[in-house]
Amino acid sequence: MITVIPSADRYSADHGWLQTHWHFSFADYYDPKNMNWSALRVFNDDIVKAGGGFDFHPHKDMEIVSYIVDGELEHRDRLGNRHTNKPGEVQVMSAGRGIVHAENNPSKSDMRLIQLWILPRNKNNEPRWEQKPYTRADRHNRLLQVVAPTDHPVDGVLTIDQDASIFVSALDAGKEVTHNQVGTHAYLFVIAGEVSVNGKTLKNGDQARVADEKSLAIKAAGDAEFILLDLP
Fold first, then answer.
1. Given pLDDT bands bounded at 50, 70 and 90, which one contains residue 126?
2. Average pLDDT in the 28-40 region?
3. Which residues form the Quercetin 2,3-dioxygenase C-terminal cupin domain (predicted)?
């Protein structure tokens, strides 16, 4: 089963410094029928204006993954980590028993990031932060795995405490990739362009919620970029 949700059906908000699309019930958007998809609790597509950001705030018992689409995102936390993420970079923050952090756009241009919150298998884990750079060449015309489960690590890939994997891809027009499902759910979001997933069309900003599909054939109608989650 593949359910396509058009971009226009997402909840959108403009806070001046932040323009956001929330795919699930979050903050002042509450919908008890749209709380999560499997272990995926939050999927936010954010544009942060130059100089804007989130001041120090706490998180607990959540695996938080950020994927930088355009611009720069500076991360700071009370563990002593500080880093400015660039396009294509992936950041994992395992909040565990508690972490306090801040994020901001230090540049003079807008930045765009995809932020995912995934429910962990265990509570009160040791909090940690990790980051890894990836280039467009790394994901060009292939599925690039950027996140794996902690108990099934992959060389050069960040990990989270959940039976979930995350992939990104940049496909040329007409190119196709295939993903064989490990979990029973999947989630695909089109960052740019247009793709088909097992024959169903998704345009820029559309999402697909997938259940009980053994294989996903993803083909680009034109040049396209997307993010894919394999979920329990």
1. very high
2. 96
3. 153-231
The residues near 165 (Cβ < 8 Å, ≥ 6 apart) are 145, 147, 148, 149, 182, 229, 230
d(CA 139, CA 145): 9
What CA–CA distance (Å, rounded) separates 41 from 64? 10
Q: How far is CA 215 from each of CA 1, 160, 190, 208, rounded to the nearest angstrom?
A: 11, 23, 18, 14
* Residue-level pLDDT at 202: 98
Give per-residue pLDDT as tens, 57-94: 999 999 999 999 999 999 999 999 999 999 999 999 99
Which residues are part of a known binding site for Fe cation?
Answer: 57, 59, 101, 103
Q: How far apart are the first and last CA of the chain?
A: 15
Q: What predicted TM-score, i.e. pTM, was given to this entire model? A: 0.96
Rounded mean pLDDT of the chain?
97
**DSSP code string of 152-192:** S--TT-EEESSS-EEEEEEE-TT-EEEEE-SSSEEEEEEEE
Q: Are 34 and 11 contacting, i.e. CB atoms less than 8 angstroms apart? A: no
Q: Annotated binding residues, as ranges?
A: 57, 59, 101, 103
Closest CA to 185 of 159, 161, 208, 204: 208
Largest CA distance in the chain: 47
